[in-house]
Design brief:
141 residues, mainly alpha, Sigma-70 family RNA polymerase sigma factor
Length: 141
């Protein structure tokens, strides 16, 4: 989201007026209140410069991400097609189809409890398969 200077300035002014009201009620000298206001405004301007730049950079990164959309992996064959590392690919093609289906569902954000009925296994069996695959991948990578 872009930095909105007008909105941020309005929020700062409301906060500052409330703070100054409290300071006046406590009997703080006007010169001290004015010095605090000047210092706080300098901090606000410094933050404004930072957030304006950071916001532009964030929009730049979002633009790059939009241009380089990743292909959505919807099937096991899509998953295998997207792998660029040859040793990883050769390892995954040796794994049974059900384990690859579990990996795909995990990548799509499913929990182990949600995956279990989809692949007709218990949650423990899924954990065991994933653990076995991790050990296999650690050996080659």
């Amino acid at each position: 989201m872009a930095y909105n200077h007008g909105w941020e300035d309005r929020k700062w002014r409301i906060w500052k007026e409330a703070e100054e009201k409290i300071l006046r009620e406590c009997g703080v000298d006007e010169a001290v209140i004015e010095q605090i206001r000047t210092d706080d405004r300098a901090d606000f301007n410094s933050n404004r410069r930072f957030y304006r730049w950071a916001s532009d950079f964030g929009e730049y990164l979002e633009g790059i991400a939009d241009r380089e959309k990743q292909a959505e992996v919807k099937s096991v064959s899509d998953l295998l097609d997207e792998i660029e590392d040859e040793t990883l690919y050769l390892t995954l093609i040796t794994v049974d189809k059900r384990t690859l289906q579990i990996v795909l569902l995990k990548m799509q954000g499913y929990s182990t409890k949600e995956i279990a009925p989809l692949v007709h296994l218990t949650a423990g069996a899924i954990y065991a398969r994933l653990n076995h695959l991790r050990k296999k991948l650690r050996k080659i990578l």
